[in-house]
Design brief:
binds cobalamin; Methyltransferase, Methionine Synthase (B12-binding Domains), Chain A, domain 1; 210 residues; metal-binding
C-alpha cells in the first residue's frame, strides 16, 4: 500500500471507530518504514481532529467519540514502543498529566508519545491527577518541566494552581500547558512558562524551556 494511502487509512480508521483497522494499519505503517511519529501526526491525529470537529457540530455523540478514542489507543499501543526506542538524547525530564477533575487523555497521550519520541524522559501521571501530585512528583523525580493538559474550562484553573504550588515551594521548575480551551494568553496570565497548541509543537517548546 502506498504511504499516503496508509496515512489516510489511519485517519479514516479513527473517524470510522475501527479499532482493528487502526491497529492493523499501524503495524503496516511500521512494516512499510513509515515513522511512528509521522503515523501519529499525519494519520491518527488528523482523524481525531475530524472527530473533535464533528462532535463540536453535534454530528457525532459521546459513544462514537469514545469508540474513536479506543481506536486511537489501540493504534498508539502499536506505535508508542517504536517512539520509545528512538534516539536516546538524554534530554530533560518531564512530569505530565491531565489535571484533577478532567478525564480527557487522548491529547495528553499524543504529547507524551511525541516527547518520548524526541528523547525526553517522561513520567506520565495519567488523567484526573491531584494538582499537588504534579508538583510533588516533579520534586521527587528532580524533573525539569511540569506539563499539564486541561480540556475543559472548568478544569483549566487547575493549571494556575500548579504554577502557584511551584511558586509557594520556590522550586526551579518550568511549566508548560495545553489542551483545547488553553491559549497563549491564558498561560501568560497564570505565569506559566510555555504553551503549545499541539503535540508536534510541544516538543520544540519543551526543548526551548531547558
Ligand atoms: C474525546 C472527548 C471526550 C472523551 C475523552 C476520552 C479520553 N479517553 O480522553 C469522553 C467521551 C470520555 C469525553 C467526556 C467528557 N467530555 Co469531552 N470531548 C472530547 C472531544 C470530542 C475531543 C478531545 C480530544 O481527544 N481531541 C483530540 C486530541 C488529539 O486533541 P486535544 O485533546 O486538543 O490535544 C491536542 C492539543 O490540545 C495539545 N495538548 C493537549 N494537552 C496538552 C498538554 C500540553 C502540556 C501541551 C503543551 C499541549 C497539549 O496537543 C494535543 C495533540 O496535538 C472534545 C472536543 C474538542 N473540541 O476538544 C470534547 C470536550 C473536551 N468534552 C467536553 C465535555 C463537556 C465532556 C464531558 C463533561 C461530557 C459529559 N457531559 O459527560 C465529559 C468529561 C468528564 C470529565 N470529568 O472529564 C467539552 C468541554 C467543554 C469546555 N470547554 O469546558 C468538549 C470541548 C466538547 C464540547 N464542545 O462541549 N470527552
Amino acid at each position: 500500500m502506498a504511504k499516503q494511502e496508509i496515512l489516510d487509512g489511519l485517519k479514516d480508521a479513527i473517524v470510522n471507530m475501527d479499532e482493528d483497522k487502526a491497529r492493523d494499519l499501524s503495524e503496516e505503517a511500521l512494516d512499510e518504514g513509515i515513522g511512528a511519529f509521522e503515523a501519529i501526526t499525519e494519520g491518527l491525529a488528523r482523524g481525531m481532529k475530524v472527530v473533535s470537529d464533528k462532535f463540536d457540530k453535534a454530528e457525532v455523540y459521546l459513544p462514537q467519540v469514545m469508540k474513536s478514542a479506543d481506536a486511537m489507543q489501540a493504534a498508539m499501543e502499536v506505535l508508542r514502543p517504536e517512539l520509545q526506542e528512538g534516539e536516546e538524547t538524554g534530554k530533560g525530564k518531564v512530569v505530565i498529566g491531565t489535571v484533577e477533575g478532567d478525564i480527557h487523555e487522548i491529547g495528553k497521550n499524543v504529547v507524551v508519545a511525541m516527547l518520548q519520541g524526541s528523547g525526553f524522559d517522561v513520567i506520565d501521571l495519567g488523567r484526573d491527577i491531584a494538582l499537588k501530585e504534579f508538583v510533588e512528583r516533579a520534586e521527587e523525580e528532580k524533573a525539569d518541566i511540569v506539563a499539564a493538559s486541561a480540556l475543559m474550562s472548568t478544569t483549566k484553573p487547575g493549571q494556575k494552581k500548579i504554577v502557584e504550588l511551584i511558586q509557594e515551594k520556590g522550586l526551579d521548575l518550568k511549566t508548560m500547558f495545553g489542551g483545547a480551551p488553553v491559549t497563549e494568553e491564558w498561560v501568560e496570565e497564570i505565569g506559566g512558562d510555555g504553551y503549545a497548541p499541539n503535540a508536534a509543537e510541544a516538543t520544540g517548546l519543551a526543548e526551548s524551556l531547558l
